[in-house]
Every structure is written in structure tokens, then in C-alpha cells.
Amino acid sequence: MASYKAVLFDYGNVLCMNQLDSDVEAMAECLQIELSRFKTFYWQLRDEYDVGAYDGREYWSRIAKKGGRDITEDQLRQCIEFDNVGWSRPNLIMAQWADKLRQSGIVTAIVSNMPSDIREYLRDLEWMPEFSQYTYSCEVKSVKPAADIYLHCLEQIKMRSTEVLFLDDRQMNVDAAQQLGIAAQVFTTAEELQPFVASVGLPELSLKSLV
User: Fold this and answer.
1) What CATH number does domain 6-17+89-210 carry, 3.40.50.2300, 3.30.465.10, 3.40.50.1000, 3.40.50.720?
2) Which member of 5, 21, 61, 73 has the greatest number of CB atoms within 10 A?
3) Partners of 8 in beta bridges
4) How many CA atoms lie within 13 A of 26 on its CB side?
């Protein structure tokens, strides 16, 4: 019998792969901002985008302004598209495992810092499995590692913190979850996660595609 009644997933770098260098380069080139400066602006303003304080237009306009540029409608459209695509390449092993968990009766949820543009984009992706609950920062107006976003998810799935497992690629988000009593693990790869999964009695991951 599994030790946990629910498994909560971060999205970026857990259910999907990291952006490619070419994705970031395409956005920087689109705005004609030097790459290292673009990266700084991209992450400097990201929390506001993720929490919904900025919509896509405001976020990209502010990045352009920091780089000393004006942004056209075409550039805005392209940057949103590049960003959406960059965060939509699946980690199929984890996506399939999430689906396997839900079908086995375990509650699954996403707890992710995510802007509304990417949230909407994900709805049309065939590889994205169904989850029992979705907690997105743009909807709850809170970003990890703040406690509010975790507590919102727990309330929605009606579970105690000790009944759930949370997977995230960032140590600070794992630490924040653990402070609430959630069993949280830093995710690196499915292969490295497998021994832990086996030790707590959860359905195994299919690692065949890693061979």
C-alpha cells in the first residue's frame, strides 16, 4: 500500500523539460536585446508574470523597456509563442507516471508558478495528462515558495500535509513544503526518483525510454 494518498507535481523541469538555449536566444533576438541582459530581465520580472500582476503584454513590454527597446505587436506575439513552446516539451516519463498514479486511485495535482499564457497553452497539448487538481500561481495570486500556494492545493484536495508527496526541482520550494509538513523531494531525473518511489510503495515509473 502506498505511503501517500496524493502526489503534487511542479510543472517546469518536472513534467516538462527545461527551455532550450535556442528558445531563450530566439526571445532575446526578437527583442534585439543582448542575451545575458535579456536573461536577467526575463527572470527579474518573472514572479510578477507568474502571479498575475502582469499579463503577457505588460511583462514583455517591461522587458523590452529595460533593454531600451519598444515592442511591436508582432514581437509581443512572437515572444509569448517562443516562451510557451519553450516550456512545453514533455518529460514523458513523468507525465505518464502522473497519469498512472491517478488511474491507480492516487490524487494528483500540479502546484506551479505559471503565467496565464502558458496555462492556456497547456490546455491544447496532447501529452499533458489529466490531474485531480491544478494550483497555478496566476490563479491563486501566490508564488512558491510562499506557503499560501501549497495550502491552497491541500485545501482543494482535502488532504493533510502528511498525506502528500511533493516533487519540485528547486530546493527552496521543497524546503518551504517541508516546513508545512509535506513530504517533499528535489526532482532531478526519473531514474534518480525511482528508488524513492519503490521505497514508499507508489506505482513504479516506466524507465524504458531512458535505455
Assistant:
1) 3.40.50.1000
2) 61
3) 109, 166
4) 16
